[in-house]
Write a structure and sequence with these properties.
By secondary structure, the protein is mainly beta. 9% of the residues lie in helices and 39% in strands.
Length: 924
């Protein structure tokens, strides 16, 4: 969404939602004729979809929001979802659009909701989205209210079922945007900019833009795309051709080319991005504008040598990643996502598999950081709905240079069958209709040897695990490129050096893996020794909640991660540093710092990419051994208090070392931050990482003391410690240390500084850190309207010569005596020039719970007026010129009540009367 920051009117809808976790029907209360008839009309959904619905007692939340984080762990829950129940919830927001917006397209953009979601606007359902992983937009133009009548946006999310076998959370867990565009505009995700290398120095940039007309009148327009480098210099421009007159309700496509000589290439080492600005002109006026960041790069993949970027043969060194993070579930702020990607890069990773969750923010981050991405669809189907989802995923991905592959399924039982081949073909065709510049693939856990299966129709075959079949596949299909789409599934618990299945703990020596998987060392050996395997995506970069293989309760998180769920290093990190980085690496895996009885034999593994390693105890050389580039080197040493050191050699020279010290008594709390400065853009957050250390700075390895976080000018979004067996609350200000570490995710409130005080009261230790918050220009936020508008008014079909009965008898089958009416700024035309006539208005209003100091407010009502509640007079006014009215409500009145308003036109100087503004319920 960063591409919308300039040009269009874009507003964040992340603040001020009302939320309740329960299911509420949108059906009318009865099946009598009046209710059935009314519900059969546009805008007639009831319950939370209705503007009159009372949500005063709902919780106020900001997005992103995952309601499952506040749930308790329950043994009867699903291990796959981390033993937390999910359920059904509703979100509501009321907001205003000005009269100036009346001739604009009004879009709602949802980046992700988990799972099955229904979007209602002003009582009409405008979208039913079945997946929790795709982004989508809702065009609310036709149903929008403008001026004084607010819009009611309601979202029902049903997370009772599941799409995956991991923690999925529940709620509006990504951003929501309100976008206003001119009546003829550049279509949502309708711009495709693709650089193509023509010769060694010249690039042709293909540009296509969809122009959409949301109204009935034709427009003559022009589209121009300009390309700028990072210094703001114009690199090239093109006037797009193909259609200059766009008819009413038409979508047209225009195209053009920009030629660029010797651009700076996007690569993993230098991810240089250009800015493409596409403007839509009507005459001399620019009426719409969209920015896209693009990169110049070439990609290819072959069955002999694997993957090529910009003509360089490189191995894809990637991680698979689910979405959740400790303490905050799947509601992960942009800056924490960026933090996680940077952590993977520190290990030497150059690739990221969205497994199995396409996320537009991840693509922005990977563009900027130089990480190649496999975008993966969640649902394997060729249904019309799924094909639309896939096309939407590709439309939002295709301009990102980081995107190198599209994967259309993961581990599907039908993958090796004729049905699976048909579905894969349909999904591949859907991708290519939108973008034919990247390979299309699937991630198989079997069936890839079958000629009638999906592997024979896709561009690339991904194999999950079972690396022993790489050679067999390559022999049978020598022309099909191959990627290890999931490798390893190795187990570790941070800080553990002895496996104890009775306590659900696994050591950190790379001894353990899933039944279907391999250890880190075994998996990498199978990839690195085969040039035809284009790369590996390790399962996984981070621990995630759910899927606690090989255990069940009380384990609530997985053991697969290279980092734990907080992003704290496991020893697994150093295996990949040694394999993937050129710089010399030496890392000791052992429990030495825990302290032991003197003479205890300690297993010591040294992970290294050096040729030899020497082990020293208190500066005495114990042994020196050659190191295996895959399996590293192991020692055994007798414990004595003090230091062990490992020294790495290349060509006989010392190039790296690592050491461990016996930990002393706790002395202080050390704090590190995921970022040093915060900003006020409303999307920022920081991971505050705390380690308990001794006087020498050595981490206390088995510390489990409780920390308390106190925050000024900030909000604690969640806390964690990386323990896959912890049942502590996520949304709180306290957390136990796990092997000496804990974390809080904190968002700033305002400019100035966030002040975080961390205390370990059991140890009488505390520390404080101040994080500067810099004020920056950002998106405007939609301000929710808290007042409740009484809607669904009806006006009697004829006027009266005399004062009418305020409570007339109307048969339930009579749908025509009262006509729907809206109060939108002007008197009703039925009363114009009708001097001495009476008009009768009625509605059934939900007045909510019984409360004192409630009143109805009508800011503009013209003519004599009488207001009734269930036929009893509440207030009256005999001023024919009009003005506002305040009507006190009896404190005992609650729920659905009949309101009646009678207007008498008695103004001979200006014979107009009626209710001009909405009827609003307020509280003192």
């Amino acid at each position: 969404m960063k591409r919308y920051k300039k040009g269009q009117q874009v507003y964040s809808l992340n603040h001020g939602w009302r939320f309740v976790e329960k299911d509420i029907s949108v059906l009318p209360p009865t099946k009598q004729h009046d209710d059935v008839y009314g519900f059969s009309k546009a805008g007639a959904y009831r319950g939370p979809a209705d503007a009159n619905y009372d949500d005063a007692d709902w919780e106020i939340v900001n997005l992103p929001h995952d309601w499952v984080t506040k749930h308790d762990f329950v043994e009867e829950g699903s291990p796959n979802q981390g033993y937390k129940e999910r359920g059904i919830g509703w979100y509501r927001m009321r907001f205003e659009l000005s009269e100036e917006d009346r001739n604009k397209q009004i879009l709602l953009e949802f980046e992700g909701m988990s799972c099955d979601s229904q979007v209602y606007v002003n009582g009409s359902i405008l979208k039913h989205n079945y997946s929790g992983y795709n982004s989508f937009c809702v065009d609310m133009t036709d149903m929008a209210n403008f001026g004084v009548i607010p819009n009611t946006l309601a979202v029902r999310i049903d997370a009772s079922a599941w799409e995956g076998w991991w923690y999925e959370g529940a709620g509006i867990y990504r951003n929501v945007w309100l976008v206003k565009k001119s009546e003829v505009h550049l279509a949502h995700d309708g711009i495709f900019i693709m650089p193509e290398l023509e010769d060694n120095t010249t690039w042709k940039v293909h540009v296509s833009a969809e122009i959409e007309n949301s109204f009935e009148y034709e427009h003559m327009v022009e589209v121009i795309t300009c390309l700028y480098d990072q210094e703001g210099n114009l690199v090239g421009e093109a006037a797009l051709t193909g259609k200059d007159i766009v008819c009413g309700y038409e979508t047209a496509t225009v195209t053009g080319e920009i030629y660029v000589n010797n651009p700076i290439l996007w690569s993993v080492k230098q991810p240089y991005l250009y800015k493409a600005v596409t403007k839509l002109y009507k005459g001399n006026d620019c009426i719409d504008e969209v920015e896209e960041k693009i990169g110049f790069r070439t990609i290819s993949i072959d069955a002999k040598d694997g993957f090529w970027l910009n003509g360089e043969n490189i191995k894809l060194l990637g991680f698979c990643n689910h979405q959740d993070h400790a303490g905050i579930g799947v509601a992960v702020p942009y800056s924490i996502k960026e933090y996680r990607v940077r952590l993977l890069q520190e290990l030497g990773a150059n690739a990221y598999r969205c497994a199995h969750n396409p996320d537009p923010e991840i693509l922005d981050i990977c563009d900027e950081l130089g990480v190649m991405v496999m975008v993966e669809n969640r649902t394997y189907s060729s249904s019309e709905e799924t094909l639309r989802e896939v096309e939407g995923i590709v439309r939002q991905s295709r301009n990102h240079p980081c995107v190198i592959l599209y994967s259309v399924f993961n581990e599907e039982p039908l993958q090796g069958t004729h049905k699976g081949r048909r579905m894969a073909g349909a999904l591949q065709a859907a991708v290519r209709r939108i973008d034919d510049t990247r390979p299309v693939m699937g991630a198989f856990n079997g069936g890839y040897m079958e000629e009638e299966g999906a592997s024979t129709i896709l561009d690339v075959t991904g194999i999950n695990y079972n690396p022993g079949r790489y050679d067999e596949f390559h022999k049978k299909y020598p022309d099909t490129p191959l990627i290890g789409t999931e490798t390893a599934s190795a187990f570790m618990v941070r800080g553990e050096y002895e496996t104890d299945y009775s306590k659900n703990l696994i050591n950190s020596y790379d001894d353990e893996c899933a039944l279907w998987g391999n250890t880190i060392s075994e998996a990498w050996k199978m990839v690195v020794e085969r040039p035809f395997v284009a790369g590996a995506f390790v399962w996984t970069g981070f621990d995630y909640r759910g899927e606690p293989t090989p255990f069940t309760w009380p384990s609530v998180g997985t053991f697969f991660g290279t980092y734990d769920s907080c992003g704290f290093e496991k020893d697994a990190c150093y295996f990949y540093k040694a394999y993937w980085k050129q710089e010399p690496i030496v890392h000791i895996i052992s429990p030495w710092s825990e302290g032991h009885e003197t003479g205890t034999q300690i297993r010591i593994k040294v992970v290294t990419n050096c040729e030899e390693v020497a082990l020293l105890v208190n500066d005495r050389i114990i042994d020196r051994k050659p190191a295996d580039p895959i399996n590293h080197v192991e020692f055994t040493a007798s414990y004595e208090e003090g230091e062990i050191k490992a020294i790495g050699y290349r060509n006989g020279e010392i190039v790296a070392n690592d050491y461990q010290l016996t930990a002393g008594k706790p002395a202080s709390l050390e704090v590190s931050l995921s970022k040093e400065t915060l900003v006020t853009d409303g999307f920022d957050a920081v991971a505050v990482n705390v380690t308990l250390i001794d006087q020498n700075g050595t981490a206390i390895p088995n510390a489990d003391h409780t920390l308390t976080f106190e925050v000024g000018n900030g909000t604690i979004l969640g806390v964690g410690n990386g323990d896959p067996n912890s049942h502590e609350d996520d949304v709180t200000n306290k957390r136990k240390l796990f092997h000496g570490k804990a974390q809080a995710i904190i968002a700033p409130i305002d400019k100035g500084s966030v002040v975080v005080k961390v205390s370990a009261n059991e140890l009488d230790l505390q520390t404080e850190v101040m994080i500067p918050v810099r004020e920056v220009e950002s998106f405007s936020y939609v301000e929710p309207v808290e007042e409740r508008v009484i809607d669904n008014w009806r006006m009697y079909y004829q006027l009266f010569d005399e004062m009418p009965n305020p409570n007339p008898k109307v048969d339930k089958n009579d749908m025509n005596s009262f006509e729907p009416i809206a109060f939108n700024g002007a008197p009703q035309t039925q009363l114009t020039d009708q001097l001495h006539k009476y008009a009768l208005y009625r509605c059934v209003a939900n007045l909510g719970e019984a409360k004192e100091n409630r009143y109805l407010y009508i800011s503009d009502i013209k003519g004599y007026a009488w207001i009734y509640l269930n036929g009893e007079l509440l207030a009256s006014r005999t001023d024919s010129f009009g003005g506002h009215m305040i009507i006190d409500l009896p404190k005992e009145v609650k729920g659905n009540q009949v309101l009646t308003i009678i207007i008498h036109n008695e103004n001979e100087e200006w014979p107009q009367a009626g209710i001009c503004s909405p009827v609003v319920m307020k509280e003192l």
